[in-house]
Design brief:
Blueprint (H helix, E strand, L loop, with lengths): L8 H14 L7 H20 L7 H11 L14 H8 L7 H11 L3 H4 L8
Length: 122
Protein backbone atom coordinates (compact mmCIF):
# COMPACT_ATOMS: atom_id res chain seq x y z
CA UNK A 1 0.00 0.00 0.00
CA UNK A 2 1.55 3.26 -1.17
CA UNK A 3 -0.85 6.02 -0.16
CA UNK A 4 -0.02 9.71 -0.12
CA UNK A 5 -2.05 12.90 0.17
CA UNK A 6 -4.02 14.07 -2.85
CA UNK A 7 -2.57 17.47 -3.72
CA UNK A 8 -3.22 17.88 -7.43
CA UNK A 9 -5.85 17.01 -10.00
CA UNK A 10 -3.44 14.39 -11.35
CA UNK A 11 -3.16 12.81 -7.88
CA UNK A 12 -6.96 12.86 -7.66
CA UNK A 13 -7.42 11.09 -11.00
CA UNK A 14 -4.82 8.50 -10.05
CA UNK A 15 -6.56 7.85 -6.72
CA UNK A 16 -9.92 7.45 -8.48
CA UNK A 17 -8.46 4.92 -10.93
CA UNK A 18 -6.86 2.94 -8.10
CA UNK A 19 -10.06 2.97 -6.03
CA UNK A 20 -12.01 1.73 -9.04
CA UNK A 21 -9.66 -1.27 -9.31
CA UNK A 22 -9.85 -2.24 -5.62
CA UNK A 23 -13.39 -1.09 -4.82
CA UNK A 24 -14.80 -4.58 -4.30
CA UNK A 25 -11.91 -5.84 -2.18
CA UNK A 26 -12.75 -7.65 1.02
CA UNK A 27 -12.89 -5.20 3.95
CA UNK A 28 -10.60 -7.59 5.89
CA UNK A 29 -7.82 -7.38 3.28
CA UNK A 30 -4.95 -4.96 2.71
CA UNK A 31 -6.70 -3.76 -0.45
CA UNK A 32 -9.89 -3.26 1.57
CA UNK A 33 -7.96 -1.06 4.01
CA UNK A 34 -6.41 0.80 1.09
CA UNK A 35 -9.85 1.36 -0.47
CA UNK A 36 -11.19 2.77 2.80
CA UNK A 37 -8.27 5.19 3.18
CA UNK A 38 -8.41 6.22 -0.49
CA UNK A 39 -12.13 6.91 -0.13
CA UNK A 40 -11.45 9.27 2.76
CA UNK A 41 -8.68 11.07 0.88
CA UNK A 42 -10.84 11.40 -2.24
CA UNK A 43 -13.78 12.69 -0.21
CA UNK A 44 -11.57 15.26 1.48
CA UNK A 45 -10.20 16.46 -1.86
CA UNK A 46 -13.68 16.67 -3.39
CA UNK A 47 -15.03 18.62 -0.42
CA UNK A 48 -12.17 21.08 -0.81
CA UNK A 49 -12.22 21.53 -4.59
CA UNK A 50 -15.64 20.33 -5.75
CA UNK A 51 -17.87 21.46 -2.93
CA UNK A 52 -21.57 21.42 -3.75
CA UNK A 53 -23.44 24.27 -2.17
CA UNK A 54 -26.81 23.61 -0.64
CA UNK A 55 -29.76 24.92 -2.63
CA UNK A 56 -31.47 28.08 -1.44
CA UNK A 57 -34.59 27.49 0.69
CA UNK A 58 -37.06 27.81 -2.18
CA UNK A 59 -35.11 25.44 -4.41
CA UNK A 60 -34.90 22.97 -1.49
CA UNK A 61 -38.69 23.18 -1.09
CA UNK A 62 -39.22 22.61 -4.83
CA UNK A 63 -36.85 19.63 -4.81
CA UNK A 64 -38.69 18.07 -1.87
CA UNK A 65 -42.06 18.76 -3.50
CA UNK A 66 -40.89 16.90 -6.59
CA UNK A 67 -39.56 14.00 -4.50
CA UNK A 68 -42.89 13.73 -2.67
CA UNK A 69 -44.98 14.37 -5.80
CA UNK A 70 -46.55 17.43 -4.17
CA UNK A 71 -48.03 20.15 -6.36
CA UNK A 72 -48.15 23.86 -5.68
CA UNK A 73 -51.88 23.62 -4.91
CA UNK A 74 -51.07 21.14 -2.12
CA UNK A 75 -49.33 23.92 -0.20
CA UNK A 76 -52.46 26.09 -0.08
CA UNK A 77 -53.34 26.40 3.60
CA UNK A 78 -49.78 25.58 4.64
CA UNK A 79 -48.08 28.66 3.18
CA UNK A 80 -51.29 30.62 2.71
CA UNK A 81 -53.70 31.14 -0.14
CA UNK A 82 -53.07 30.22 -3.77
CA UNK A 83 -51.52 33.61 -4.60
CA UNK A 84 -49.25 33.54 -1.50
CA UNK A 85 -47.97 30.07 -2.42
CA UNK A 86 -47.19 31.35 -5.92
CA UNK A 87 -45.44 34.47 -4.59
CA UNK A 88 -43.26 32.45 -2.21
CA UNK A 89 -42.32 29.74 -4.73
CA UNK A 90 -41.53 32.42 -7.34
CA UNK A 91 -39.36 34.33 -4.84
CA UNK A 92 -41.61 37.38 -4.75
CA UNK A 93 -42.24 37.04 -0.99
CA UNK A 94 -40.04 35.65 1.78
CA UNK A 95 -40.89 32.67 3.92
CA UNK A 96 -42.18 33.55 7.39
CA UNK A 97 -41.46 31.64 10.57
CA UNK A 98 -44.99 30.21 10.55
CA UNK A 99 -44.60 29.06 6.94
CA UNK A 100 -41.29 27.40 7.79
CA UNK A 101 -42.87 25.56 10.73
CA UNK A 102 -45.72 24.29 8.57
CA UNK A 103 -43.43 23.30 5.69
CA UNK A 104 -41.17 21.45 8.10
CA UNK A 105 -44.13 19.29 9.14
CA UNK A 106 -45.57 18.78 5.65
CA UNK A 107 -42.33 18.26 3.72
CA UNK A 108 -40.19 16.78 6.50
CA UNK A 109 -37.58 19.37 5.54
CA UNK A 110 -35.28 20.76 8.22
CA UNK A 111 -36.09 24.30 9.29
CA UNK A 112 -32.36 25.03 9.25
CA UNK A 113 -32.43 24.69 5.46
CA UNK A 114 -35.39 27.04 5.09
CA UNK A 115 -34.08 29.84 7.31
CA UNK A 116 -31.09 30.52 5.06
CA UNK A 117 -31.11 33.90 3.38
CA UNK A 118 -32.05 34.14 -0.29
CA UNK A 119 -32.69 36.91 -2.79
CA UNK A 120 -36.17 37.89 -3.88
CA UNK A 121 -36.74 38.34 -7.60
CA UNK A 122 -38.04 41.65 -8.82
Amino acid sequence: MNIKPIKTEQDYEKALRRLERIFNASPESKEGDEAEILSMLIENYENQYYAIEAPDPIEAIKIRMEEMNIKQKDLVGIIGGKSRVSEVLNKKKKLTVDMIRQLEKKLHLSASIMVSNYQLLK
